[in-house]
């Protein structure tokens, strides 16, 4: 908690007493009421202070929280990997943007109430809301850098606090406080707010547009293909898709509408083919490198997507492969290094059967090949991800030996990072790559080398990813979010 200046009194919004709820919708409505009241209080006083240029008090508002206390070891339905706590005790989670997470919160709270037979308590937490996050949804308001105003910002308002903006819960390093209250959700409110702000910055789209199924790519060509597919879907009244959103939050609802092009592209542009219930598809062009892959997944994870899949280009490592062949990853050799401090390299990152089957069936559907014939265009095996795009220019004896020992069939710079962060954040993950070069066999990625077969396969590649996501959308939530991604000491919230 940010310390208060001793000579300034603290003003807070009028607080509503904590109340127990046995109805999930009513509980979420109270969360929204508390959150909106805190935001309104901070925004109103921030504007007033900016206008006056001074303050004779300190303004502080708090995030709302969900709290549940159980006293029984009674066993709940163990078929579900979420929606219940593992043992008696008190569990709590601070909440932000309950409007954005309304459906998620209703679902998770309803499961808690049903599984434990006790109400949840909704009230005000003791975690201050930073003024930066309070004004984030007001397009005409921004918080200036320290020194830009006529008063010291931290003397009057709370600012982001690293003690509550971290990944301790998902990393398994969270320390239970002295009062014994355990975490109920994988992220704190400040951690979520931080990522929502970063997502808007990196992707140039509002987080509200993100869908539950996310495709990552490292090649701009897929963006054009995605827009073409989106327009086809919008022209079909039975598709279930309602709109398409591009960078700058440009949105169309009809196939023939013109999308204004952004004057300046963000670092990782995102595009969203939306459905009314959020079960559509988001495509993010993360560019090249494991750092970008980690950054994107670090922030998208707070939205609790149902799956993310990498559909990018890779180097084929087998002489029998051809440009344009597909690679379905069933294991990962992690030499990207960016996640080593958060997820040690000795932690296995397993393939998830539900994702693998959906991808294989999508390849079969699009190529009209089945069974043994699928090997003509797709190999299944280990994918290695490196942090050095030009590894070929160094002594390759070490890397080549490790690639051989791992039985790797392909190499890229992003897939292992995306899979490892999916494992770390409990987001179902998968990888389907397209071979664009074969550096060990003299076929470097150079202009003019792409064959007609390669160009055809690239056109199919994105569609295969979309087909896989559409299959996953029809899958029950409890099946795709299985125990394979969750530990024996897990938060109740998905």
As a percent range, the share of helical residues equals: 25-40%
Helical segment count:
13
Question: CATH topology of the largest domain, which one?
Answer: Rossmann fold
Q: Which strand-content bin applies to the residues?
A: 15-25%
CATH level-four homologous superfamily name of the largest domain? Nucleoside phosphorylase domain
Q: What is the domain total for the residues? A: 2
Q: What strand order characterises the main sheet?
A: 2-6-4-5-7
CATH architecture label of the largest domain:
3-Layer(aba) Sandwich
Structural class: alpha/beta
Count of DSSP strands: 18
Rounded average pLDDT: 89
Intertermini distance: 27 Å
Q: In CATH, what is the class of the largest domain?
A: Alpha Beta
Function: Catalyzes the hydrolysis of the N-glycosidic bond of AMP to form adenine and ribose 5-phosphate. Involved in regulation of AMP concentrations.
Pfam families: AMNp_N, PNP_UDP_1
Protein name: AMP nucleosidase
Organism: Thalassovita mangrovi
Short synopsis of the structure:
It is an enzyme of class 3 (hydrolase). The protein has 13 helices and 18 strands. The protein has 494 residues and is an alpha/beta fold.
